[in-house]
């Protein structure tokens, strides 16, 4: 800051040029400040807005509850199906397996491996192709 | 009443299979974590395989849960 | 409420006791302590929101900025998850968030009843969310809402299987939503009670016991801090998931 003023005072001729370099220096500093601010805000939002950024305990509870809930719903539906139609153990067997698949699907949704409802990729596909769904990782919660 | 007791005991024994699945899951996640710590950059790419292994292993556990549920309510 | 017994029973705090017994036909519609604290939650939240925004200062006071921050927080959460079209659900999501948050925080006051540690309360809240999603989805999209269950790009043979899986996955949402909130609050309060019980039973052992009781006391202090965090976090998670489910009602085909 003091350097350009000093030299500009000594000689009249390079006044404009020196002023320009002064502005240039200011611009430089502004740009650097902006970069720092950008980096900081990006880091803040990446940490704060992402539900996955919370504690591992919370995430583990979330995933296991998603998985168990689907299995419970499957078992309940299977029991109700058998109770209503009297189809022996087969309703329970079928619906429990479906509930298990839904639980895996829930887990993959919760970790962002499969995009949300109605999107192209589904669980069956993922089993044959392991790299699927990594593009929208981090989007989902 | 005897048959009722046997049914509960059977359900309990069937649930032991879940313990096997639990051991397997522990191995899978432990090995994944070990591998991920050795080469963190490759960890994300293998997450699909982790879920696949989890699904297959847990499916066997679900079979025994199924037997237990059938013994209880079937 | 009502923890006069000398032995520590960690479950006792969740017992529901009728305050004003009301009986209609075969139904027990008593005004219980759960009802009392739900009412208290609503009153506390409403009075707080009303009083803090009553002056409507251009330069907000501290309390007013708390309210404004809460508003902004929920609004940005909903806008991020469900787009600007989702803002019509803002009153609903805001009410849910504030209700769960205030109920969780009220439960942290000693001798107060924790409403959100009752599974029927959390289940009712989550059923409200899911029914809103289903009703609004059918109202807006008609049968097109069913596209939610049919993902694109699946071979025809697999469609019935995938649809069944998707339906079960959808049905498991209210269960996991309610069980998560319920289990977190229940487990947290039981843990607090158990560690608080250690202090009492150690303290009755004489001088050595009192010295030893310092450890569980520190634990209880730490756990109380953690529980306040959990109270906020669970309200946040509940609201975020509500926003995501509402997004499905607004854009079923995505």
Automatic annotation (TrEMBL), chain B:
Alphabetized SUPFAM superfamilies for the sequence: F1F0 ATP synthase subunit C (SSF81333)
Keyword Amino-acid biosynthesis: no
Subcellular location: Cell membrane; Membrane
Residues of the site described as Reversibly protonated during proton transport: 58
Domain of life according to the entry: Bacteria
Bilayer disposition of the protein: Multi-pass membrane protein
Molecular function terms, GO-annotated: hydrolase activity; lipid binding; proton-transporting ATP synthase activity, rotational mechanism
Domain V-ATPase proteolipid subunit C-like: 9-70
Keywords: ATP synthesis, Cell membrane, CF(0), Hydrogen ion transport, Hydrolase, Ion transport, Lipid-binding, Membrane, Transmembrane, Transmembrane helix, Transport
GO cellular component terms listed in the entry, alphabetical order: plasma membrane; proton-transporting ATP synthase complex; proton-transporting two-sector ATPase complex, proton-transporting domain
InterPro entries in alphabetical order: ATP_synth_F0_csu, ATP_synth_F0_csu_sf, ATPase_proteolipid_c-like_dom, F/V-ATP_Csub_sf
TM ranges: 6-29, 50-73
Chain's role: Key component of the F(0) channel; it plays a direct role in translocation across the membrane. A homomeric c-ring of between 10-14 subunits forms the central stalk rotor element with the F(1) delta and epsilon subunits.
Recorded family membership: Belongs to the ATPase C chain family.
Family matches, as NCBIfam families: PRK07558.1
Name of the molecule in the record: ATP synthase subunit c
Gene expressing this chain: atpE
